[in-house]
């Protein structure tokens, strides 16, 4: 019986000590704070920048394009005319973007587009011609070769557009 009383007393002491240690822990020692995890997904800020879009088109620089003729035949000046005076009075240079036309005033800017491949070039009318009935326009050699599909050909089918201001 003594053993049972001793065990009971021991049990009571252990219970008392554990409850007092909890009181001591609660009163004297600071308790650990449990941290709640914050939302780790950051919300994106949307910044809208308004910029003025400046168009840098050919039409704004040179004027409005008006279609003149589709299916026109174009050729290029022969090399023998290089350095000779044109009808406008300036010297012909086969390495510039110039053209000869029967009706357009000198200084008129034209956009000539090869219908076979869609390549185009802007030329200035500086001379009269061509003097072959079936041809509409003569281009300088540089302008012609820039848009030619077949570099060996001397004639191509083009569309002509005129710049007006």
Description:
The chain has 165 residues and is α/β, with parallel strands linked by helices. The protein folds into 2 domains: 1-29; 62-164, RlpA-like domain (Barwin-like endoglucanases, Beta Barrel). 23% of the residues lie in helices and 27% in strands. The chain is built from 3 helices and 6 strands; from the N terminus they run H-H-E-E-E-E-E-H-E. Strands 1-5-2-4-3-6 form a 6-stranded mixed β-barrel. A hairpin with a 5-residue loop joins strand 3 and strand 4. The chain starts with a helix and ends with a strand.
Beta percentage is 25-35%
Total strand segments? 6
- The global form is elongated
Q: Order of SSEs, N→C?
A: HHEEEEEHE
Q: Helix proportion of residues, in percent?
A: 10-25%
Strand arrangement within the widest β-sheet reads 1-5-2-4-3-6
Main sheet specs: 6 strands, mixed, barrel
Q: What top-tier CATH class of the largest domain fits best?
A: Mainly Beta
Number of domain units: 2
CATH topology of the largest domain: Barwin-like endoglucanases
How many distinct helices?
3
Structural class: alpha/beta
What name goes with the CATH superfamily of the largest domain? RlpA-like domain
The end-to-end distance, rounded to whole angstroms, is 123 Å
Low-confidence stretches: 21-25
Report the CATH architecture of the largest domain.
Beta Barrel
Work out the oligomeric state of the chains in this entry.
single chain
What does the radius of gyration come to?
46 Å
Compute the average pLDDT: 81
InterPro entries: RlpA, RlpA-like_DPBB, RlpA-like_sf, RplA
Pfam family, one: DPBB_1
Organism: Flavobacterium frigoris (strain PS1)
Family: Belongs to the RlpA family.
């Amino acid at each position: 019986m003594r053993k049972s009383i001793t065990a009971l007393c021991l049990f009571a002491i252990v219970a008392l000590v554990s409850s007092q240690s909890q009181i001591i822990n609660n009163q004297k020692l600071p308790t650990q704070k449990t941290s709640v995890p914050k939302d780790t997904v950051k919300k994106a800020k949307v910044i809208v920048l308004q910029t003025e879009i400046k168009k840098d088109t050919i039409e704004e620089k040179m004027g409005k394009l008006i279609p003149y003729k589709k299916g026109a035949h174009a050729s290029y000046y022969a090399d023998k005319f290089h350095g000779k005076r044109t009808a406008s009075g300036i010297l012909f240079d086969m390495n510039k973007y110039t053209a000869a036309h029967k009706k357009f005033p000198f200084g008129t800017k034209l956009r000539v587009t090869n219908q076979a491949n869609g390549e185009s070039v802007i030329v200035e009318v500086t001379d009269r011609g061509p003097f072959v009935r079936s041809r509409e326009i003569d281009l300088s050699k540089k302008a012609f070769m820039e848009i030619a599909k077949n570099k060996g050909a001397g004639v191509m089918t083009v569309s002509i557009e005129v710049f007006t201001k």
